């Protein structure tokens, strides 16, 4: 084998070299075909090899790829901003463009803090989050994240932000109704704000559906409505982290649309450019922009590649493709079928405690004992084994491991491109079933 000079996620491990992709399939250089059952990192939502996007990329590159945001705006960036303002609810009309989800959430964190400074209330500078959450890998974003395995090494360097429990319906107290449980979890936010002092709290951040740290954990109806009420009552901004859920992934344009809740700040990434270019966004309300405009007049954030015309043109082509092919509606429709097939697997296979999800963001949680919901120790590596076995058999799925304080959270995410057909879902399920059966046998 030729020597590699590239730093890989797991040092010392070898990876197949990618050759090309088409639709839901990826092909390596050995000619092996994989179903991209998780869009890489819940990203490739329109599938691979889409000609229209490649054409838009080429057309923009012929005009100009890069012009710095402090010097120029561009048709591409303005059209993308306008499209997002059209899609986003309420007065979420202003977009700050960045290149990754971590930058988007960290920019939201900074804008929230700056907003209160501009209002003359600088002590409102802490962010409350949930201990089962993932908002990104940079230090600010990680400070707001509960993902134990990703934070562990850096804890002494992170902001000591307060956290509350996430709603985790599968493991709710026995006998408690879903709505009662949702309210109980939401009310933890009020208790945390009172404990810390509302004059210290800038914002609360949450993912509509918990992704990487939980495996598609869907909150009870009523949860986010109550969260919104509490944020309003205590003048705390609400940041919806839609990096994974945005742009149709859950069967609505944005995850929060399921509950009709309008946040003050919203972050997007992943599906916003569907993997065709690094692109992400922090969208904020008129109120926030007016406050900063009347104050310092300068958003203290930004990166070299923020709002570059090349990425904007590509992202716009992706959003147009989503609209033209009605992929948000397809996500709801095919997602319901995917969940139905996963639920049937969960009924059949003792290893699966729960199948769950919303739209095309689904997950499976593995348990040692279905009746007691006893989790495997993370050292058993059950989800990792299912992922490795699936990969071997030509199916890529995404881990949601260790999001729960190292006790549970042995889950996977199944989130294929929104373009997937029913027969392709059947093909995906057949491979996944074989992989889980193989791991189940190894465990006996
Ligand atoms: N926020 C959420 C909800 C995510 O799922 C992720 C990535 O998984 C991020 C933020 C960070 O995005 P990125 O990996 O693009 O920095």
Automatic annotation (TrEMBL):
It comes from the Bacteria. GO terms for molecular function: pyridoxal phosphate binding; transaminase activity. Keywords: Aminotransferase, Pyridoxal phosphate, Transferase. InterPro entries: Aminotrans_3 (IPR005814), Aminotrans_3_PPA_site (IPR049704), PyrdxlP-dep_Trfase (IPR015424), PyrdxlP-dep_Trfase_major (IPR015421), PyrdxlP-dep_Trfase_small (IPR015422). PROSITE patterns: AA_TRANSFER_CLASS_3. Gene3D superfamilies: Aspartate Aminotransferase, domain 1, Type I PLP-dependent aspartate aminotransferase-like (Major domain). It holds the Pfam family Aminotran_3. Belongs to the class-III pyridoxal-phosphate-dependent aminotransferase family. This is Aminotransferase.
